[in-house]
Amino acid sequence: MRWRSLRKWAEPALVIVTVGALFAGGVGWLAGAGGFADGCWAAATLVAVIPALWWVIAALRRKRAGVDLLAVLSLVGTLVVHEYLAGALIAVMLATGRALDAAAERRASHDLRALLEHAPRSARRRCGDTVSVVPLSEVAAGDLLVVGPGEVVPADGLLESAAVLDESVLTGEPMQVERAVGEPVRSGVVNAGSAFELRATATAEDSTYAGIVRLARQAGAESAPVVRLADRYAAWFLPLSLVLAGLAWVFSGSLVRAVAVLVVATPCPLLLAAPVAIVSGLSRSSRLGVIIRGGGALETLGRARTLVMDKTGTLTAGRPAVVEVAAAPGWETAEVLRLAASAEQLSPHVLAEAITTEARTRGLYLSLPLDLVEEPGRGVTATVDGHRVEVGKPARPSAQQPWATAVRGRAGLDGAALAWLTVDGEPAGAVLLRDPLRRDAPRTLRRLRAAGLHRLVMLTGDRREPAEEIGTVLGLDSVCADQTPADKVAAVRGERERDVTVMVGDGVNDAPALAAADVGVAMGARGSTASSEAADIVLTTDRLDRLADAMDIARRARRIAVQSAATGMLLSLAAMAVAALGWLPPAAGALLQEGIDVAVILNALRALRGKPAGGITLTPATEQLLHRFSAEHDELRGSLPMVRDAANLLAGSGATPAALAELQRVHTFLVERLLPHERAEETQLYPALAAPLGSDEATATMSRAHAEIERLARRLGHHLRLAEADGRIDPAQLDDLLSGLYGLYTVLSLHFVQEEENYFALVSDAEPAGARS
């Protein structure tokens, strides 16, 4: 710390002294005081020799012989041949180059330091009516913590009261979010509202932010492979410079020429451009919620060609969600879901949480359950609104009714879990749940392929059927199912033998595979501590697309680093050749080298700017529209199966009054809810997306789907008018009705998925409960 503080003041002081001496000498020279001018310039040279010698000694202690040695030789050479102006210019070059590089490094690492400084050091713990401030190390799981306005959440926990949070430190998203009672909150986020209470679920040391801080402490300007590449440049550049200087002296007999060669071969800040670019890349990644252990991981990520991914929690949301609600004849799907959620709302089971979340997402009123009994492995039984309700596996198998058989068939094909609803002993419906595909997964994988990944592989311990279904949807090159942790490690090692490999996972069982990869990436937002500690990169937000952002940044930072070092070397070699021929005197060579060094460092700073390829910037108004229509999608999707169910009823029972009533219900849903939503998208959302997506053509196919949905809805309305006029459905209408209904369900299902993947995934900082695959 003392050395850093000294360096902070010494570098600007060296610039002031050398520039002051150069300026004073210039004034003396203009006034005709040549001796005074030479004295000032010689003093500037001597002042610069001392730190240059220190830099050389420090490098030799690390067993490196870099181009700082050339700086010392050129400074000493200018004194020997009395080229004091050239020596002063070199001194200014070294001082300004070091100061520029230090400023760049401070700017590039600002976000990493801010992350460390943001870490809380104490917490407010409530015991009864007493609130006391305790050291962070004393916080234990189960403690009730109070977080005041503007304070940092000290430990992971569950909210005891509603909160407004600023999660930008972890997610990179500037918008504040509202969290309800019972929702999980991660340490490190900031209370942007009034004080709230939190029930800690982990100690501070085991919480999210502590793990991120541990990684951030390691994230800095390490000697990445690209930086060692600069050292390798120096390994041949140094002897080459000495040889050229010696040859110039031998063949011309002029020591001045040799000194001129050494002067233009003094790119001391030049080779620092590579680490500046790497640290800049680390800084940009951290601002997006991607913590990278160091420059080596960033550089390797930029060279990766193969991506290996876990399924659960990486490509999928990692938690079950309701994909469909089926109702028995005479029941409404909304009522089936409401009763199931009412009974399940007090259960800690993961499926119960999914059912309750879906009901609240749809805005359903939940009744308080009475006489609740939960049987592990079977489900819950409770009294809801005066009815005895059972959710889970029924006490007796459901009757072999057509609707129940169809539900079981769909669950089997989709790999979904089934929670049956029984009311007063009679089957009333079922809820189908599965782990949904992330909305951002398809877009992210397309971006990763565009970034240079040629092979995408999925490793999962899940069954082959659901794994291959996801592989087909995402267009993966290989899918390996039924994998144990040992199998995953072997598969990753096999991929490494072919190419540089990145592994992404989030669970404890992924930690060995993450460690086996060239670069391990942990989904740290909900991932285990073990996987985060084994990884080289942690995504602090639950967004897979941040990996694509990080890869774009890594490739750009590495490209700029290599470009800066190589370009500077080539320019220096050309200047050395000119100096060896006697066409470039030492003073002019010093000025030229100054320009080369400053140019390449400024070029390296470009790694701080720009946006990831494929990244899309949205205005706040457009983001609000996307959130609004995404929420409407979640509400509407639950009603889509009624279109298919009406077709099934019509196909099974024929033109009956019940079928006619179901068709009228579907038509009402289409006219009153679905079509207004689609028209609003067409007139409000799509025009707002035209600019960020590049043109109106980006939404043209979705507009065509809107037109087809409206056409089929109108066709259904025409059939209903004919049926109502006759008082029945004409058998001649059946074929067209069936084809129209099945076609409408297919188009709607595909259209919803496409909109979610292409548009709504742009703003999803966490997988919504309603996301489906």
UniProtKB/TrEMBL annotation:
Claim: Nucleotide-binding is one of the keywords in the record: yes
Family: Belongs to the cation transport ATPase (P-type) (TC 3.A.3) family. Type IB subfamily.
Molecular function as annotated in GO: ATP binding; ATP hydrolysis activity; ATPase-coupled monoatomic cation transmembrane transporter activity; cadmium ion transmembrane transporter activity; metal ion binding
Coiled-coil blocks: none
One Gene Ontology term, aspect cellular component: plasma membrane
Full protein name: Heavy metal translocating P-type ATPase
Keywords: ATP-binding, Cell membrane, Membrane, Metal-binding, Nucleotide-binding, Transmembrane, Transmembrane helix
